[in-house]
Amino acid sequence: MRRTLTAAASVLAACTVLVAQAPGPVDTPAPGFDISGYWTSPLYEDALERGAGPELGDYGGFPINEAARLFALSYDASRVTLRHHQCDGYVAPYSVRSIGNARAWEERDPHTQQLIAIHWYNQTFEGHRTIWMDGRPDPPAWAPHTWMGFSTGRFVGRALEVQTTHLKQGWLRRNGLPESDQATMVEFFVRHADHLTHTSVISDPVYLAEPEIRSTDFSRQPIDHQTWLFACDDGEQILDRAADLVPHYAFGENPFVNEMRDRYKIPAAAYLGGPETSSPDLLLRLASLTEADGVAKTRPAAGPRATSRAVDPQPRDGDVHVWPLRGSLFLLAGDSGNIVVQAGDEGALLVDSGAGTLAEKTLARIRQLSDKPVQYILNTGFQPEHTGGNVVLRASGGDPSVRGSFFALQFADAGVGATIVAHQNVQNRMVAGKRPAAGVPSDTYLQERRRTFHNGDAIEMFWQPRAVTDGDSIVHFRRADVIVTGDIFMTTQYPPIDVANGGSVQGEINALNEILGRTVYQHQEEGGTIVVPGHGYVSDEHEVVEYRDMVVIVRDRVQAMIRKGATLDQIKAARPTADYDTRYGSTSGAWTTDRFVEAVYASLPRR
Amino acid sequence: MRKTAGRSLALAVLAALSLETNAVAQRGGPPGPPPTPRAAAPFDIIGQWVSVVSEDWRYRMTVPPKGDYGGVPLNPNGRRTADAWDPARDETAGEQCRAYGAAGLMRLPTRVRISWTDDQSLKIESDAGTQTRTISFGAPRAPGGDWQGVSVATWDRSAPVVGGGFFPGGGGRGGSLKVVTTRMKSGYLRRNGVPYSADTVVTEYFDRFDVPGGDSLLVVSTEVVDPTYLAQPYWTSSHFKKQTDTSGWNPTPCAVR
Prior knowledge:
The structure holds 2 protein chains of 2 kinds. By secondary structure, chain A is an alpha+beta fold.
């Protein structure tokens, strides 16, 4: 009886709470709704695109900018035969439009039953989204990007509103229309009985002139579809193809650009897209669009160069931030060039030392990660953003492996300070540049690789001859499977190919392919080997392959113009980087688009 | 003893629920008349909205070729009828507005002006084809039989809410405008003669979303059920952006080509 009364009291208390929470004032939190279950999107809208695939050159209704259009027109579908593109996943904004089944479920705290996350799984490319509902903040700008991005949600009225950042580069449409890694998305899920309407608003400063709006319908399925997997493994599709071949079309030479015009009698200027093509006002202009209007959209317009609209991934707050990579490896972001720390019993090992302006704070962070002194500093190149902290960080540590050895007989300071390791040309360049002797590498190698086993990991440095300079190394932590690239790869700008210091565009391409030769993705061309760029956010092979494609394509354009006798000024005026400038371009600062084109030009043969 | 305890618990629960119901009912004093549909609107739908044609672009921005009805779940009868489309015949018959009926209007590139006619009815005007839809909460005011048929509206707040069941989680804010349209004159889902019949029932849900720091969107999810020409319900969702002014309003007559 006592138990019964207690239970009744609990029920009464619960009802009191319900009364207190009954809907009333406008600021009552939205209670949310349930989208759990199996869903299928009928392909009534954009059926061709979502089924067999879109028409080539059909970008009508997409509010794209010039860069996106030129990227898409340059895209050759045979690019997916390249090993590193064969299993490319779909990014979240496109994934929701894909064919196949979807499943949603909730994740709740087992003790409080608070909603932690809503999961949305797409069969196509096995895209698994986690929509965090617990109010957690976005990751920092230097965190990795993924196909699905980082999503947070909240209930607004009768809609689930979701905001997504940290997306990879992918497709807006499967005919080459790009979505950049800078895109963000706001979505609204609203449910009407067994029908779900999904509305997405995609903003992309790199490739969209206005936000792209789409709405997609789903029907609830009463039973499990039983088909959830999307098996993909890359393989050798075309044998003996050169490693530096990336299928693409020169500007103005896409052979399929007029298919829509010829088949449907639609002006190219309309179906080649742009913000004006999604408005009813297009109907007023459709008849007056000319052939010349269409041709003009297939080539870079004359005028000033565009500049990068990407988010700066550097903190620039005067502090150094730690981001865990894998195992005992950490990224230190903040002091210009990226620094990687390996912590362990044998002493900390660093890859690069930053610009040195935040060296003391860098040291403080290292000491939080490791109570052992810095034993090694591996330099990926001689650039000041990667070696500027050498003096301070070297002085903070020591190398017990040479104390008491025969080195001590030759050098009074053997083992004093950390040992700085790099390719010999790094030492040469730093000495020639009169850099402080205490920061110059003392342990150098001349060819191929330098290797060591430290803190339980096999660490290899591979020389990349004539990449951005003549002394570049990539560093591969084999057990952790982390590759640190130095300035060979960065997510912030065009590669700073320094021809005067031995760099070349072909060496840069070879180096990027060398990185790709060592990476292994975990799932659908994502994850697996972690790639830390010289500058920018933590990446994997997908970011490297997109970067490699860009360098190859620009090289090919410049080389083709050289062969036609174009001068450097003519080449620059032709804007061979027009589809990449909104992502990597610059007209000011140390490394401009012009300097990149000049470097490509200077390092290519005149034939 | 166990049975007695169980019965006591059940009675306690019923008493508690009764208390809760009474508490809700009595809050704010004696019940007044229910608010009018206009006063009960869960969101502001009024204004000029411009369609954003980012899907089915070719089908919507141009008149597709005859027989090009990809994505529409036509049955054999529907395909036969679509294949027999003759725009000249429509013009001769004075039926240029067949693609501007309620089942297809919101899918056209158009601007729409939505306003309250009175507390019980909404009006949707389109500049494409200069059409007017009258949407009534409660009893319809027109017999139908024209392009726009008879539209009956409700504020739909029936989305499955988390916490429903024995201890309901509350109704919450928000909702959709649900519009059911019948008694239309037969017309076209697309301008190239993809047909719907006079037996068609169109159910639409209008939802407004305010993008943080951006546009206000009106998304119209439309289900077309037509036993004559469709093999299964045909769903589309069309979206509009709110205009802050009345610019761009360009009334044009219905056109076949």
